[in-house]
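Morning F.,

Quick status update on the modeling queue. The single chain you submitted on Monday has been processed. Sequence for confirmation:
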Amino acid sequence: MLTIGQLAAYAGVTVRAVRHYHQIGLLPEADRDSSGYRRYGAKAAVSLIKIRTLANAGVPLSQIGQMLQADASTFADAVQRIDSRLRDEIEQLETSRKQIAQLAAGDSLTLPPEVTSYLDLLREIGVSERIVEAETDGWILVVAAWPEDIPAVMAAKVAQLDDPQLVRLYRILSEIIDNDDAGDDDPRLAEAADIMAGLAEQAYTSGEINPDEVAHDDLPLDLLDALAVESDPRTERMRDLMRERGWSGWNRIERLAEPRG
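Structure tokens below.
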């Protein structure tokens, strides 16, 4: 009765789709008539409409054949499983949409709001955008390693911005990183190291730096140290200057028994 084109048009699919269904065994090919054309009957149209309906509903093509042959109870169970899978996919898509909305708003996909708010505070006190970018990468590593600690950590970091010495440190580092011509002999590196050593001594005295907890997780801290050097090789010089002042490390600061130098 129907050519393949007429069958496809009746069921609301493409000829290419019909041929694909033939190839995967979902729809049997019709016999050819005396003119050499394949002619499809009413049952083929019914089958194709069922296939189209299930496919449009999200049923994988690999499952449609079994569903077409299933009894009512088996069919209902299969539909329930597919519905559950679709709900999970919808939830994932909604999460993706929220992340895309955050990206459009200028927020980071990989950072919680506490961190992005802190980065905005750095911008407000005049920190270089290159420093903010480096901080962003660092916080991505921190959040991935210790997500449950972030609210408390960020509250402490925000409070530290009340210290004028820390603000001064950020501004010095901003001046250095924005000057690609500044070398390892830039006197501002020594000033930055003096401030960092003073802040480290202050934190050590107050108990903020606990030697027993310094190496509680090596890998993230090693990555943070490596990131600092990759972001600006002059970090190596800063590390040497800190050792001369009695401190080792960059993100994992430890007090040395005797200052070097």
